[in-house]
Amino acid sequence: QVQLVESGGGLVQPGGSLRLSCAASGFTFNSWIMSWYRQAPGKERELVASISTSGGVTNYADSVKGRFTISRDNAKNTVYLQMNSPKPEDTAVYFCKARGGPNWREYWGQGTSVTVSS
Question: Do 112 and 9 form a contact (C-beta atoms < 8 A)?
Fold first, then answer.
């Protein structure tokens, strides 16, 4: 059974830092592309960052480039999102997504809420 469990969300002040984690199980983690998405109230879900199977290639939304870092630990079946200097507009529910397998399937976690406010 595939499971993606996000953690690490909460309240953070603008300019602070926060690290989100997504623990995966039930599939061959090191063969799947991992991504972080977010959805703010009243807005569509958007891609924040993605990382290749080995971790050697990463991509970021323009809005988070230079502030957020995605990484993965294939030994721990976990993907991370380091959020530095967050802004109020980064407030959202953050989801991790796994994509891969022979049929190029997608799996989503339940999300973790991040609020950036002073």
Answer: yes
Q: Tell me which DSSP letter residue 8 carries.
A: -
Residue 102 pLDDT grade (very low, low, confident, very high; cuts 50, 70, 90): confident
Question: What letter does residue 26 receive in the DSSP assignment?
Answer: S
Closest CA to 10 of 118, 116, 114, 117: 114
Do the beta carbons of residue 46 and residue 53 sit within 8 Å? no
Tokens 């109020």 belong to 88
Pairing of strands 17-25, 33-39: unpaired
Cβ atoms 71, 78 nearer than 8 A:
no
Tens digit of each residue's pLDDT (9 = 90 or more) over 10-32: 999 999 999 999 999 999 999 99
pLDDT at residue 93 greater than cutoff 90: yes
List CB contacts of 89: < 8 A, sequence separation 6 or more. 40, 63, 116
Q: How many residues does the structure list for the chain?
A: 118
As a whole number of angstroms, the distance between CA 114 and CA 23 comes to 17
